Each structure stands twice: as C-alpha cells, then as structure tokens.
Amino acid sequence: MSKILFSHSYYYKLDPKQWKNKTPFPPLGTLYAAALLRKNNYEVDLFDTNLLDSSAAISTILKQQKPCYLVIYDDGFNYLTKMCLTNMRAACFEMIQLGKKNNCIVIVSSSDATDHYAEYLEKGADFIIQGEGEITLLDLINSLENKTPLETVLGIVYKKDNEIKVNSKRSVMVQLDDLPLPAWDLVTIDSYKEIWKQSNQEFTLNLATTRGCPYKCNWCAKPIYGNRYNSHSPEYIANQIEFLSKKYNVQRFWMCDDIFGLKPNWIQDFNIQLQKRGLKIRYYIQSRVDLLLKEDTIDALANSGLEEVWVGAESASQKILDAMDKGIKVEEIYQATRMLKEKKIRVAFFLQFGYLDENQEDIQKTIAMVKELLPDNIGISVSYPLPGTKFYEKVKDDLKLKSNWDDSDDLEMMFNGTYKTKYYRKLQRFVHKEYRKSEGFYNLKHFFKNPNQLNISKVKSIAKLGFYIISTFIDSIILKRLQRER
Q1: How are strands ordered across the β-sheet holding 205-207?
Q2: What's the CA gap between 58 and 106, in Å, rounded?
Q3: CA of 132: how far to CAs of 114, 173, 365, in Å?
Q4: How far apart are CA 138 and CA 379, in angstroms?
Q5: DSSP structural state of residue 198
Q6: How many CB atoms lie within 10 A of CB 433?
Q7: 411-450 residue pLDDT tens
Q8: Could you tell me the pTM of the whole model?
Q9: What is the largest CA-CA distance in the chain?
Q10: How many CB atoms lie within 10 A of CB 302?
C-alpha cells in the first residue's frame, strides 16, 4: 500500500518560552494515528518537528522517501497546539507547500486547521480532518486508495469543483482501548533525553489516559476531543507504562489529560494494576480542585505515585470564577491545596488574568492567595479568546488587528479588557516575583525553626530575597502607572 509520511506542526524552538524549559514531549497524538494506519497494513514513517527550528528540513525527507501522503497530524494532547500559535501556522503552511511541490496528497489534522480550514485549503492542503482524527484518517486514505466516494467519509473538509465541501461530523470514539499502543518506535527517544538533561529534571514521557473534558469553562476550546469524556482502561495504561519502562527505562510520566481520573474508581483500579505489575512510577497530572476533594481520591493518587498536580485555580475572585463558568469555589482551592500538601504532593496553579470585568480587587485577591498558599509552581497567562468558545463570541468584534498569539509567551490582550497589554505583561512578571519573595520569606522563617531542613534550593530562595524585595517594589510603582493608561 502507499507510503504515508506523518508529521506535525509544533516546533519547540519557535516557541522560546517552551524551548527554554528544555522539557519537550513526543507528539503523542501523531503516534496514535501512525500506529492505527500501520496496524491496517499501511507503511508509515514520522518526520518529527519538535526539536527542529525550520520546516525546510522536511524537503529532503520528501525527496528521499517520495511518500504518496503527507499527513500533518498535530498532537491534540499538547495544549499548546490548540492555542493556534501563528509561528506554528506559518510552519505548517510551508510544510503543505513543500508536500505539494513533491507531489504528495496533503492531509492536515489540527485544532487550528479545524477552526480555519479555508485558510489551509487555500495554502494547498487537499483535506482537513475536523475533530478526533484516527478513524477519519483511516477511512479517508482507504477511500482514496479504493477510489470510493469522498462524500461518505465523515469528518473531512476538501475542495470539489472549486467549492469547499464540509462533510458531516464523525461521532467520537468511545472504546479507546481499540486503538493500538502509540508507535513509540517512530520517535528518537534518545534525542529527547539529551534535551531533558539540560533541564536538570528526570526524563519524562507523556501519556493520555482519557480524551475530552465534560466541564464547560467558557474560555476553553475543545476542537479535537470535544466536550465529553472517554477513558482508556487502567489495564491499557498500565500495559503501556510497563512497555515504556522496559523499552526506554522511563519511570516518570506526564499524564496530559485535560482532567485525570474523573471516572469513578479509575484511580484506585489504576493503582491496583501498577501493583500487580510491580511498577513503581512517578507522575504528574492536571485536575480540578473540586474533584480532588472527593472520597479517597488524594490517598489513591499518592499511593499510585503522584508527585504533582496542576489545578486550574485561575482566580481567587468568586466573581471571576463564576463569570468563567468554572464551576468551583475559592474555598475549594484553599482546601485542596492544603490537603495535597499534607500528603506531600506538590501542587501548582494555572492562573489567568484579564478576564472580562476583572478589577484591581479581583487581581489583589489572586495575588494574596498565591502568597498565602505558596503553591510549588505557578503558570500565568491572560485570557485568550479561541474559536468555538462562549468567551470568543463575547469579544470577537475586538479581534481585528490580531486574533492569535505568535508563541505561548505572547500575552497580548486581543480584546478590550480592563487594562492594556503592557499592564498584564508586567503583572505576570510581578506576580512571579511576589511568589518568589513570599517563598523566600517562608524558607527564612522556617530556617530559624528547623535549620537542619535547609537545602540548596531553599538557600538560593533566601539569598534572592533582596533582589525580589527591590524588584517587586519597583514593579508595583510601574503597575500603578500602567493602570492609568487605559
């Protein structure tokens, strides 16, 4: 059968903030699709763009391999891909053009292409896959190979007689275990390990135990896996962990689900499966504070090897949380954080500034929460309107000059918020400094109580106190001036 060259359009080097972290993950979604096509007797290969800095390198591969199909299949489990960053869009457009130049049928599956399919077709793509892509891709290539009518292939967009045809959507997969394990052999794992060494962190691989999210935060786009929740079995995930542990000597994992362990008793059963196989792993996840407070969830997570959980705290203002349709209470953020810390599980906050009608009182509440709870890490962004969300519909009339960020550290306000972009960019840096300053004071206070517990990290935190005290004072003055520039 015809050869298929898989690729994707996320380049860590084109996203300076993420490249600086030196913690890249293989394109998991792409590997799932490649595995399914290979299982169905298609010859597949992968051109992995993650560690490259230019799309031009694919030209050599296309000339050498002469594939019939170039499938640019983004990793939908990587939240960075659904941000529709223009640096990645431009790279994808170039890859499309190189694919056509080398006589390939070009198929694109991504969040950005789902939302902006006309632009991708205009650049030369032959087919756009909308939503969850594995079964659609298989049906599409089967149809092309067997010359059956394209109208019967659900979930694709294409041109016919110079008109754009949008076929009916495909139902989402429910039995995720029907998919073969991702085609990990197509990735050069050692190349990722070399980059991770520069981060001074233990090498970590990414796994997805679920697809979708049933919650309705009105700023969160779900173009690939949708507003639903389906899960692999604990056995499937434990089998994959056992394989990766033996094959690549990996014991640490990033569970990249939108929400980990929502299905009742999944975490408890997962822990049992790990114990049966004698697997001792460490992992970190994303979750919701309200879910973490249910029954023995935190105990089961701790017993199965959880090191850290990232929660969407977003704001310490109940007014803002309610406006976002977040569905949590501020008190739950406080309670879950304290419970996690009691179990020696690291807790990290996603924070979001700039939402509609946010004022200084709301901002100060969030800063105060960070200083009081002292999470182990924080990630700060400003509200970012993405197509398909209620939030986007509220502000879309403001999106005239620019509607997407160039990279994930862009932080530009796309709509008319309370303050301008300069304010929020300075605020992001200021909150990080306030956090580090509070951390330094905390460590200094506990040094006098328990000097024997001091480690290098805590010493550095205390040593930098002088810098953060001065820097936050200066930044606070600048922020007050920027507040007036509306």
Answers
A1: 205-207, 252-255, 282-287, 306-314, 346-353, 377-382
A2: 13
A3: 10, 8, 39
A4: 37
A5: T
A6: 21
A7: 999 999 999 999 999 999 999 999 999 999 999 998 887 8
A8: 0.95
A9: 77
A10: 17
